[in-house]
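FIELD: query
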Amino acid sequence: MNSPRSGDFDVIVVGAGIIGAAMACLLLARKLSRPGRVAIIADHFPPAQPSDADWDLRVFALSRASERLLKACDVWGALPAARVFAYERMCVWDAGGAPQGAGSLTFDCAQIGEPNLGIIVDGRALQSQCLQSARQAGAVLVEAAVGSVMPGEEDILLRLNDGRELRSQLLIAADGTESKTRELLGIGTAGHAYHQDALVAHVRTTKSHGNTAWQRFLPTGPLAFLPLNDGRSSIVWSLARTEADRLSALDPERFGAALNMASGEALGQCTLTTRLARFPLKLQYALQYSSHRAVLLGDAAHVVHPLAGQGLNLGLLDCAALAQVLGEAGGAGSFGDSRLLRGYERWRRSENLLAAAALDGLERLFSRTDALSTNLRAAGLSAVGRMPFVKRRFAQRALGLIGDVPDFLKSI
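FIELD: result
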């Protein structure tokens, strides 16, 4: 294949979020492309995070597979230590049970021979470092909106709203749930709204979080407490929209009282330390992950319920799978090979659909209030708790230590 003309790229990534920036880093770190040959396009790029900033309201529980991918991207070691926190245990319990009692399930990293069960990372710090690492590795950052996309036989043409035209061998759409690039490629979506919103904030509690992630399943939706390194916890509370409206209108003291009741005071009294943020929840999946010289990654391809905190981890596995498929075929010369892109699509679409279906099923099961469902949930949690092998497999799967994980992540 002839070399692309000057000014063109091997790969254009649309989207400057964590997924898009990490993908650009991975292409360069694994030498699938050269400096100057990967571009990231976004409407705007966020400013660098101030060193004295508080934890971002977006925090992510990263799996071991995600940690390894970020190491491969030369991102992990550059993250600010104050915005990274490993947790060692997880306690899940049903509304009718009690934490660490009947109707609950507790995981401990010591039981699976791992140093932790996952790592909480500040979302803004992670995005900023991914972009910085991509730039340092040689990615070209282009601030503009994409106006149109025209796939061709030899390349794909992007027309930007400022009049510029850019060509590349491969276009990667990583521009989120409402992906404009996916729309321009003519790829539809399916799924359904949960008619729920997630309320997100950081709280201080009178009891220590104990380096533990806590999650209570309520009929109105799950309530999670993710531990932070300053003793606070980040809450993610999924609620019917009308209930989210009511709680969002409360003053901080009354909201704290409602949170105490919803958590069964598992961590004692809760006090808000930040504003409340609110996000609508839905299940959404792209009907295809690839088209001619283009692929979808992350939220542009799939959106799942946040009850297990797997959304970002699934997106990062998309990045790793695409990098492996391209690497096995020789990199830049094969970027536009439709057979390879369909191989990536088959791999990740099946994995992501299974994960989405499992999370959707859990949300439905735990939202039921009839006696049979309540008894089944309690019996199921207690039964898994008595089976160390099953618990171990659940934990290993969540960490990305087993399953269809890209090979290069297993050796990092």
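FIELD: remark
The chain is about 35% helix and 30% strand.
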